[in-house]
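haha ok so turns out i had the wrong file open the whole time. this is the CORRECT one, sorry everyone. sequence first:
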Amino acid sequence: MRNTPDLPGEDRSLFAERLTTPAGLPWILAGAALAAVGVGVLSGARHLDAGSSAEVVLLLASTVLIGVGQGLVLLVLLRWGLVSRRHRWTSILLVTVTVALTLALVTEGIRAASAEAAAGGAWAGYRIKAGKQADSAWIGGRKVGGQRVYRIEPTKRNVKSGYGEPATVADLNGAKAKPSARRTSVAACVLATYGARKDNIQAAAVDATTYHLLKGGKWRITKARGAQRIRQAGSSKYVRSYAKTMLANCGRLAGPYPVSMSSTTAPVGSATKVVFTIKSATGHGLANVPVTFSYGGSSPVAYTDSSGTATTYFNVTTAGVTRATARADRVPEWRLTVRSPKNKRASKVAVAGRLAAVEASTPVRASGAQTVVVANGSATLRVGQPLAGTYTVDGGSGTRTVARSAYGPFDTSATNCNAPRAYTSSTSMSSNGRFALPSWLPPKSGYYRWGVAVTGNELSTAASTCGASVRVIKQAAVAQDRPAGRSRTVKVGQGFDVDVVVSGFDRAEGHSLVSRLYGPFVNKDNARCVESKRVASKNQTRNVSGNGKVNMGNAAISSSANTGWYVWQTTLSTGDLVAGATSACGVLYEVVR
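then structure:
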């Protein structure tokens, strides 16, 4: 049975009649509908970003709809007399209180949303129990000036504030205060690696981890306040698990990040291997970091492996030293980026998602195909002349040592740059070009060759060459004299001869020695060794192979018509390595009847 208000008997039927009157029922239904819509809008607002402009609008709208709906129902009841006259003043009071509460709710909703937005609008996370401190009401990330931030001073007030410009710090409160530089860098790693992703669980874990590292004490995730805040969050089990994982990962991988770089020496035309390595402060490699290399106009990108190493290869085209560079520009920041509040009662905030860049370089040493060429100053020399020439080095780089060696003497021109080595000297060089060979004097006849060898280094391959042979000739000498006891005057038919002394040989070599007779001359002072006066039939020939004295044999003038003065001249033939010579025109004989 339906219960109805306790009305006098005569009013009961009136209540039933007016409750179903066509004029009142639609207004009651409309008020109820408005309130229901307000409840739906309120439910939808709870799924939006806390503190966002959309949430503020929907909270305001839901509050207005619920209040208007409630007021409309009560006013209709009063208007149509559906409430007992006996309770009318009570109903009027109820309507007044409802309207006042609705207005208060609207005012508080606007104030709370505005305050939260001004203090750093909640961005991702969970509502928790509200309080006066900065660590209350919300666990997660906020937005300040378009940046994703997290509060770092839990004991400050939960009040609105503007914020100053970001400042970067490696040690949040200095060397003598907490947290340490190490905890600062681990917190920076958490914020950089995990803080910028819009995920409620992850953002709540970053919030809890940030307080754990930067405040410590009861805000550690296993201590009273830290654990309490996590329990008040939605999905608290996962928030706690995420926080532990973040602490473990960034404990291993936080910076600062030492980097190193190396390359292999490669001949021109081949490839050099370039390696870049990045480690955490605890020596663990940073994996999956993109690294942009640069060398010779090429800029490939490689990713680090689990050891923090990225490798690439470059073709080298020029001998010498050229620097290769590498830049890793998506490294988690190891310093905190902090924004201070303009309201001194509010908490500072740390900016999330900050990445840093680290760079390194290394010399790439490309070894050139070094060449050396020898050019002789002359193909033939005499003993006593310098074995001059030049050598040209090309394709080398850096400091090298060059050895200049003269090989010989050899008996034939079919020589090489093997032993014996008659002379050697060394010098250093740091540039390519054409250089003079030493002015070395070969001591004896023979064939000689310059050999030049240039050492290699990490930039140049070794090179050597053997120059063309140079013939070094020894000059011989011929002297003649009248044999001892021989008279200068002889008669027709009587033989007369000449002794010849050969000198200057420094090796055994076959030569011919020819003495030629010139005459007759009427006067001895007119005796000359000219072809027109040569007595061809009187040539005296001997074979010699070295130094010594040789009697050339007798010649006789058999005709009285050819009496007069005669003179001798001797010639030594030229060989391969000993140069011939001709004596003076001398040794006179007078032939008489």
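The radius of gyration is 58 Å.
again sry for the mixup
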